[in-house]
């Protein structure tokens, strides 16, 4: 779909305006969002100030009520006396004193709205206590230490204390019978998790006069401790939520103990890690801010860690809804939307008027370019003269037309020259190609002859190498044969020695047989058998001597022939070695001839390849020359499309200067 320049200008202006307003709205929204975050943090800081003030008031109120507990009339003397008699059980006057002290604790606990109150002696043993809840109260005391027995009364709301309501039990887990740590000597107020609740604990020493052995007079000493505990419960959370218009949640450790949103059961681990690093900071500096989504609602959150002895024991989280900030942002965006709509209504007619002043001259330029340059007519020029960018565009097109006219004129002249030069080059390249073909054929013949010579030299070298190997093998075999003959001679000599030894043994055997015959003759009849055996032995000795004599002759003859063969082989080995050396020299000379012939063959082949490349290049250049001549003719035909003005360019420039009012 074709879109006119006028429409493009209008659409572009509206798009730019719309985009600018959207970007401005995004920037304003970002700024407002940041301001909302900062405002929310300031609001959370104010809420924490109210919360801390309220918590401080509650601490002071609890501490003041604990002071009243420690200053009940006679509490010092009762504590001192009961501490000394705490091992006894069911002593009437002690029971009355316990119950009287417990009733007084109950009165103070109700006024203080405490959860638990108790009186401990200096050993940390619980003497009397009261535990309050919404519907009932538990009053009690302990006796019989070191194995204490609880005496407890359960008192409904509005009921009165009676002696018949007391009940003795072995355990009462709602209180600590013995404090695990040393009693503080000064007033202390601290926050501590107890069970599933985060509590305020107030410690106030019970002071009384005791006789000092050193000064021999009464002196003021600590004789016990009054302790009051108050839970930070739902009532406390609701009161703070109403005061700050936020949602307050209290955590003991990392677990929720009081708050409206039950989904928020536990603090994230990364928040707990930050608590460790903030232990030395002031409460205002230790607040952690972040965002959280609970039950589908988003909140700005501030979390204040609570410490006791530099250890985080819990936290208070204050949640401020993001819905208020989002409503404020939506209101501002609506205002900007209205501004955008009004801006578009104002911009449309202004842009339409402005686009007409631009699009009409450009349309005229397009028409004249289409009717002139696009049709190949370089004689027409654009007749628009203005002192703005459109005038500069029209003047640029005029300069282009003149430059094209000049270029086409030069191209026409160059194409004529190129056509004639291409024909001459084509003829020269054809002749060069024929000469290259003749050279290539001659080089091929030389290459073939050199190849045959290389093959013959290679065959001679291979034969010489084979002869060399045979000669060396024959030399080695002759040497081995000489060594074998020498060994044969040596062995024959050894055999001759052995045969001589046999002859000696035979002679000795013959002598022994003669001696045996003589001895047999002496014994006459009894030695006949022995004489026969001696005769047989002598016969065997004679035959052995005869055989040994023949072997000796044969060995002697073999030794003579072996020595003669050894001498001949000794003379033959040097001749064979000399022959092998001569063959080796012939093989080396053949190898050198072969290498030289290979090098000559490689050079001739390289020359042949170069000649063939020249021939191929000559053919290609001849073909390119023909194509160049054809392209020159085609270029001449193409240039005929343009209609050029033969008027000199100087006269046209003078005309343009006159139209613009420029003086030369």
Q: Which parts are unreliable, with pLDDT below 50 for 5 consecutive residues or more?
A: 653-664
Q: What's the overall average pLDDT, rounded?
A: 80
Strand count, sense and closure of the main sheet? 8 strands, antiparallel
Beta percentage is: 15-25%
- Highest-level CATH class of the domain at 418-639: Mainly Alpha
CATH architecture name of the domain at 418-639: Orthogonal Bundle
CATH superfamily of the domain at 418-639: Methyl-accepting chemotaxis protein
Give the count of helical stretches.
9
Strand order of the largest sheet: 5-4-3-2-1-8-7-6
Distance from N terminus to C terminus (CA atoms, Å) equals 48 Å
Radius of gyration, in Å, reads 67 Å
CATH fold-level assignment of the domain at 418-639: Helix Hairpins
Structural class: alpha+beta
SSE order, one letter for each helix or strand: HHHEEEEEEEEHEEHEEEHHHH
Characterize the overall form: flat
- Assembly level: single chain
Helical content stands at 55-70%
Tally of strands: 13
Features of the shown structure:
disordered C terminus, Helix Hairpins, Beta-Lactamase, alpha+beta, 8-stranded antiparallel beta sheet, 17% strand, 664 residues, 5-stranded antiparallel beta sheet
Secondary-structure map with pairings?
Blueprint: H1 5-70, H2 75-84, H3 92-112, E1 116-121, E2 126-132, E3 136-143, E4 149-156, E5 167-169, E6 188-194, E7 197-212, E8 217-231, H4 234-244, E9 247-252, E10 255-258, H5 269-277, E11 288-294, E12 297-308, E13 311-321, H6 323-371, H7 389-522, H8 528-639, H9 649-660
Antiparallel strand pairs: 1-2, 1-8, 2-3, 3-4, 4-5, 6-7, 7-8, 9-10, 9-13, 11-12, 12-13
């Amino acid at each position: 779909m074709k879109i006119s320049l006028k429409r493009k200008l209008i659409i572009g202006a509206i798009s730019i305006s719309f985009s600018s307003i959207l970007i401005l709205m995004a920037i304003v929204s970002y700024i407002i969002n940041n301001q909302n975050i900062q405002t929310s943090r300031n609001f959370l800081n104010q809420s924490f100030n109210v919360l801390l003030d309220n918590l401080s008031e509650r601490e002071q109120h609890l501490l003041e009520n604990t002071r009243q507990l420690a200053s009940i009339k006679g509490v010092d003397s009762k504590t001192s006396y009961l501490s000394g008699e705490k091992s006894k059980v069911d002593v009437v006057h002690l029971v009355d004193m316990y119950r009287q002290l417990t009733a007084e604790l109950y009165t103070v606990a109700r006024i203080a709205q405490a959860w638990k109150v108790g009186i401990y002696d200096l050993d940390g043993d619980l003497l009397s206590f009261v535990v309050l809840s919404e519907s009932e109260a538990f009053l009690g005391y302990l006796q019989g230490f070191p194995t204490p027995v609880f005496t407890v009364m359960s008192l409904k709301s509005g009921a009165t204390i009676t002696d018949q309501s007391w009940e003795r039990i072995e355990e009462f887990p709602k209180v600590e019978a013995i404090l695990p740590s040393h009693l503080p000597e000064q007033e202390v107020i601290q926050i501590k998790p107890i069970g599933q609740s985060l509590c305020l604990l107030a410690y106030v020493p019970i002071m009384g006069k005791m006789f000092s052995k050193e000064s021999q007079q009464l002196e003021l000493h600590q004789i016990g401790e009054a302790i009051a505990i108050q839970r930070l419960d739902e009532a406390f959370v609701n009161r703070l939520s109403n005061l700050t218009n936020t949602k307050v949640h209290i955590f003991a450790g990392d677990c929720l103990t009081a708050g409206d949103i039950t989904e928020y059961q536990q603090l994230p681990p990364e928040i707990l890690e930050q608590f460790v690093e903030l232990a030395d900071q002031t409460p205002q500096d230790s607040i952690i801010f972040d965002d959280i989504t609970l039950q589908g609602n988003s909140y700005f959150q501030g979390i204040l860690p609570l410490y006791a002895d530099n250890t985080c024991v819990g936290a208070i989280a204050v949640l401020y809804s993001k819905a208020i900030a989002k409503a404020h942002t939506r209101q501002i965006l609506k205002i900007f939307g209205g501004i955008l709509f009004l801006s578009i209504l104002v911009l449309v007619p202004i842009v339409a008027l402005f686009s007409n002043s631009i699009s009409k001259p450009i349309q005229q330029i397009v028409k004249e370019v289409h009717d002139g340059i696009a049709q190949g007519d370089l004689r027409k020029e654009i007749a628009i003269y203005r002192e703005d960018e459109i005038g500069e565009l029209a003047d640029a097109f005029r300069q282009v037309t003149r430059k094209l006219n000049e270029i086409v004129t030069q191209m026409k002249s160059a194409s004529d020259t190129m056509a004639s030069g291409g024909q001459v080059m084509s003829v020269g390249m054809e002749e060069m190609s024929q000469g290259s073909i003749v050279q290539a054929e001659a080089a091929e013949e030389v290459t073939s002859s050199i190849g045959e010579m290389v093959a013959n030299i290679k065959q001679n070298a291979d034969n010489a190498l084979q002869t060399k190997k045979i000669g060396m093998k024959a030399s080695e075999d002759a040497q081995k044969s000489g060594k074998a003959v020498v060994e044969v001679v040596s062995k024959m000599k050894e055999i001759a020695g052995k045969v001589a030894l046999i002859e000696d043994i035979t002679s000795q055997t013959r002598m022994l047989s003669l001696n045996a015959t003589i001895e047999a003759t002496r014994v006459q009849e009894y030695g006949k058998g022995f004489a026969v055996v001696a005769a047989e032995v002598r016969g065997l000795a004679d035959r052995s001597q005869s055989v040994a004599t023949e072997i000796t002759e044969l060995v002697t003859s073999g030794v003579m022939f072996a020595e003669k063969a050894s001498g001949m082989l000794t003379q033959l080995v040097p001749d064979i070695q000399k022959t092998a050396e001569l063959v080796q020299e012939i093989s080396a000379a053949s190898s050198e001839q072969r290498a030289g012939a290979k090098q000559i063959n490689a050079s001739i082949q390289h020359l042949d390849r170069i000649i063939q490349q020249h021939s191929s290049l000559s053919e290609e250049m001849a073909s390119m020359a023909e194509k160049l001549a054809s392209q020159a003719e085609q270029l001449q035909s193409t240039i005929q499309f343009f209609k050029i003005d033969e008027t000199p360019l100087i006269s046209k420039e003078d005309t343009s200067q006159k139209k613009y009012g420029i003086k030369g």
